[in-house]
Design brief:
Number of helices: 7
Largest sheet: 3 strands, antiparallel
Helix content: 55-70%
Length: about 190
């Protein structure tokens, strides 16, 4: 990794820390590193500048910039007298985080919620209970309760994310209720053993 002497090692340390954080959130490490270098600079940088500072190839820089632009966390910037394209970071951390919450996490939670609800509907009712022994009825009941718990957790998660994105006050009671339901289910299971 090379950096201008005026930047010192601090910029690259921050870039590496942001890169590690972004990687743990499911993004490429170098996406975080590139955004951090742009974020910490006082003027837009060219792709060549970014490649030099981060020790990345032209192709890697090009692909990373395309992804960062797609996520809306880097944008092209016009620099007077320059023919090369330059880039600058989105400086609103909340804008970036909320986009990921909205476009990725909320979609994942809603997909899981749909799957839980569909699975819950496939659990047969007790109408055919006369043909099942007690152990099978108990097992069916346990599965239905646990799917209902997962459904409720997904509903609370979606509601929580939606509230955060809308800037609303968060009520911890539904989260606490889900935790209490999980404890009660575990307690019931332990009693049955």
């Amino acid at each position: 990794m090379t950096a201008k002497a005026s930047e010192g090692p601090a910029v690259l340390e921050v870039a590496d820390a942001v890169g590690a954080l972004m990687e743990s959130w499911g993004f490429k490490r170098n996406m975080g590193r590139m955004w951090a270098v742009l974020y910490l600079d006082d003027h837009p940088l060219s792709a060549a500048d970014l490649g030099e500072r981060l020790g990345l190839s032209t192709g890697a820089v090009s692909m990373l910039l395309a992804e960062l632009i797609q996520w809306g966390i880097v944008k092209k910037a016009w620099v007077v007298g320059e023919r090369r394209e330059h880039y600058e970071a989105e400086t609103s951390i909340w804008k970036m985080v909320s986009r990921v919450f909205r476009d990725r996490e909320l979609r994942w939670i809603r997909t899981a919620l749909d799957a839980f609800q569909a699975a819950g509907e496939k659990i047969p009712s007790d109408e055919d209970g006369g043909r099942l022994d007690k152990a099978e009825l108990d097992r069916r009941k346990l599965i239905a309760e646990r799917i209902a718990g997962l459904t409720q957790l997904a509903q609370v998660g979606a509601s929580l994310l939606e509230s955060i994105l809308q800037g609303e006050t968060i009520d911890a009671l539904p989260i606490k209720t889900v935790g209490e339901l999980a404890k009660a289910a575990a307690s019931d299971r332990d009693k049955d053993k």
